[in-house]
Design brief:
This protein is α+β, with helices and mostly antiparallel strands. About 25% of the residues lie in helices and about 20% in strands. The strands form 6 sheets. Strands 1-22-18-17-13-12-11 form a 7-stranded mixed β-sheet, sandwiched between helices. It has a 4-stranded antiparallel β-sheet with strand order 8-7-9-10.
Length: about 500
């Protein structure tokens, strides 16, 4: 299958011009974390125990969840209806399924149910599913090949259309967009749990029907033995054809964010970027990066900001306060991310004046009650952060995909729209998140509640929307199995 490319605003991208030390402030205030072991999902809960868990859940949502009041879901009414329906003892796993469906109503993938696999029946698909061109491709667990070479597309599972399995999985809160498709691909592998919700007979094997995609289609079936333990597809995913940052023989630079984020200190970032000095163009690969090393984002971005430019805002964040009545910290709550409020001593007088001007005109597309949150925190870039930083003047292509999360997304946010920079690939995950973890006392269910809202500088809520690249590029079948990398090859051709 040939790569499909949809061009968006390429004109002029090749023309024109194209920080932080480790944070010393403490991490944000911590919330109660579970101390009891997770339960197995066996056993039952009395009606009183169910109500106690729901009362505790309601309290935590109201006090700690950053997006609890976002429109579109009347969670209080849904919770009340659930509470009123409780009359008798029921199995723990039934309570867990109801909790997952209730939390899924928020449509927020950053709201995590931490130990759900320990609480639901075991039985996992020993393969990976990935959506491509509107169809689901069946891949071996280690991504080395298709499940059936001549029949790439999964159409039915256990005799039921794959759309029915998708609906059952989405009831657990997949959100929307390409990032949601990545989440859904993972959740579709929970075969035993989805079977249970569909009312299908439990068994230790599963059948898939795969199509060759022709018209009329030809199909072939395959039977697989379920895994007793979940194995994340990402742990088997090949690192790609280029496993490390390098200066290519044709004088094009290639930098993987993972090499910068996982380095022991920021000097490694400087060393890699100095290897790229004088190259005719740079490929910055953010695909599959999910770390939260946000404090290194301004450091990298300072290489792409001319020294004559003033401070530049990358993102605005606010933090859900556990105790709104407590005095606010002048240095803020997100210093471990390199984000600071106006009151911080990190800013000089000119920078503070610029941030104050931005604050006067900043109108977020959605915000909760102001008294529940900290003042806005700013992730911003200073040019020439250290004497080691230089301005990289050549064209840059940034590769992103649906597994680009966290710090890598902020890098993409900070580079999109810059002179001589183009983003290519798929819409990113929309998941920059600081979470608090809790465990319900009777069911043992662990939940992780997002504590931070992130906004683009103009005010649009970032969480769940992600970053749409300038150039949407779909992978090929051989890209999915790691045999080719058509998006990388395209970037090289553009920079030659």
């Amino acid at each position: 299958m040939s790569m499909k490319v949809i061009l968006c605003i390429m004109t002029g991208w090749l023309s024109g011009s194209l920080q932080f030390a480790a944070p010393e402030a403490p991490s944000p205030e911590t919330a109660p974390v579970a101390t009891q072991p997770a339960r197995s999902g066996n056993g039952s809960m009395t009606a009183d125990q169910q109500r106690e868990d729901l009362n505790q859940l309601q309290q935590w949502l109201q006090q700690y969840y950053a997006r609890v009041d976002q429109p579109g879901y009347d969670w209080a009414a849904a919770l009340q209806q659930w509470q009123q329906s409780i009359t008798t003892e029921q199995p723990i796993d039934q309570f867990i399924r109801q909790a997952v469906e209730f939390l899924g109503g928020f449509g927020d993938r950053t709201l995590k149910v931490g130990n759900i696999r320990e609480l639901l029946p075991p039985g996992y698909l020993p393969a990976n599913l990935q959506k491509m061109d509107g169809r689901w491709v069946g891949l071996k667990l280690d991504f080395t090949n298709l499940l059936l070479n001549e029949y790439p597309y999964v159409t039915r599972i256990d005799g039921r259309p794959i759309d029915e399995w998708i609906v059952a999985a989405q009831a657990q809160g997949a959100g929307s967009g390409t990032a949601a498709e990545a989440w859904l691909a993972d959740r579709l592998r929970w075969s035993a749990a989805i079977r249970q919700s569909l009312g299908l007979e439990p068994k230790n094997w599963i059948t898939l029907e795969l199509s060759n995609g022709s018209d009329p289609p030809q199909s072939e079936g395959i039977t697989l033995t379920l895994l007793n333990r979940f194995a994340s597809g990402d742990q088997f995913r090949p690192p790609g054809l280029r496993a490390k940052s390098q200066r290519r023989p044709d004088n094009i630079g290639y930098v993987r964010w993972n090499d910068l984020a996982t380095a022991s200190n920021s000097k490694v970032l400087d060393e890699i970027m100095h290897q790229m000095q004088g190259t005719t163009g740079l490929i910055l690969d953010l695909r599959g990066s999910a770390d939260q090393q946000i404090e290194r984002v301004p450091h990298l971005l300072s290489y792409f900001q001319p020294t004559e430019e003033p401070l530049r805002i990358v993102a605005v964040m606010n933090y859900r306060l556990a105790d709104p009545a407590a005095p606010h910290s002048t240095e803020g709550y997100l210093s471990a991310w390199g984000c600071y409020p106006l009151t911080s001593t990190r800013w000089n007088s000119a920078e503070r004046a610029m941030l104050e001007a931005h604050a006067r005109t900043f109108k977020p597309t959605w915000s909760a009650a102001a008294e529940q949150f900290s003042a806005p925190h700013y992730l911003a870039v200073r040019p020439g952060l250290t004497t080691a930083v230089y301005h990289y003047p050549a064209p840059v292509i940034v590769l992103v995909d649906e597994r680009t999360k966290g710090a890598a997304e902020l890098v993409a946010m900070g580079l999109q729209g810059r002179p001589r920079v183009m983003l290519a690939g798929a819409t990113t995950a929309g998941e920059i998140c600081w979470r608090r973890t809790f465990q319900l006392p009777h069911s043992g269910l662990t939940i992780q509640l997002p504590a931070v809202n992130t906004y683009f500088p103009a005010g649009r809520l970032f969480d769940e929307t992600g970053i749409t690249p300038d150039l949407q590029m779909m992978p090929t079948l051989t890209d999915l199995t790691g045999k080719t990398d058509s998006r990388y090859d395209w970037a090289v051709k553009q920079l030659k």
